[in-house]
């Protein structure tokens, strides 16, 4: 009930429904910025155009890039907590996937391949960097 009442309130709000909300440029802009809140986090976009209004350069800062540091730390922490005495269970793959899905659920979906399995590989190194085990899905 609250959602319906709030929807009506917003749909009749003069500040939201005003014709002044969107301003159509009278000239061809040579630069534009935008910021959108998305399910994975904030998307910042910055565009440059030429004299014909065609895009010549784009700079995007997406949630995947912003979340990369914390995502990597969570994957490392998950792996370190699950690998004991060099014994590794197959369940490690699921836990590592859960660690990065918490930050970026689309990343896993974007990397799916036919027949619908995520091509995940975990490579375990010893303290000297030597590969001691590989797990693949």
How would you portray this structure in words?
This protein has 137 residues and is α+β, with helices and mostly antiparallel strands. It has 2 domains: 2-61, no CATH class; 65-136, no CATH class. It is built from 5 helices and 5 strands. It has helices spanning 2-11, 14-17, 63-82, 91-101, 105-110, and strands spanning 31-38, 41-49, 55-61, 121-125, 131-136. A hairpin with a 5-residue loop joins strand 2 (41-49) and strand 3. The mean pLDDT is 81.
Rg computed from alpha carbons, rounded to a whole number of angstroms: 23 Å
Looking at how many chains there are and whether they match, the oligomeric state comes to single chain
The secondary-structure element order is HHEEEHHHEE
Tally of domains: 2
Largest sheet: 3 strands, antiparallel
Mean pLDDT, to the nearest integer, reads 81
Our count of helices gives 5
What's the N-to-C terminus distance? Answer: 46 Å
Summing up helix and strand content along with how strands pair, one would put the structural category as: alpha+beta
Order of strands across the widest beta sheet? 1-2-3
Number of DSSP strands? 5
What percent of residues adopt helix (DSSP H or I)?
A: 25-40%
Estimated share of beta-strand residues: 25-35%
Uncertain parts: none
The general outline is elongated
């Amino acid at each position: 009930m609250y959602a319906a009442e709030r929807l009506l309130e917003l749909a009749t709000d003069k500040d939201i429904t005003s014709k002044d909300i969107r301003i159509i440029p009278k000239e061809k802009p040579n630069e534009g910025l935008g910021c959108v809140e998305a399910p994975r986090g904030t998307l910042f976009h910055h565009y440059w155009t030429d004299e014909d209004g065609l895009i010549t350069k784009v700079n995007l800062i997406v949630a995947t890039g912003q979340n990369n540091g914390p995502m990597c730390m969570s994957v490392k922490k998950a792996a370190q907590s699950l690998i004991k005495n060099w014994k590794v269970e197959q369940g490690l793959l699921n836990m590592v996937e859960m660690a990065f899905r918490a930050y970026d659920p689309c990343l896993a979906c974007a990397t799916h391949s036919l027949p619908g399995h995520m091509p995940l590989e975990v490579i375990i190194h010893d303290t000297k960097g030597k590969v001691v085990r590989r797990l693949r899905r």
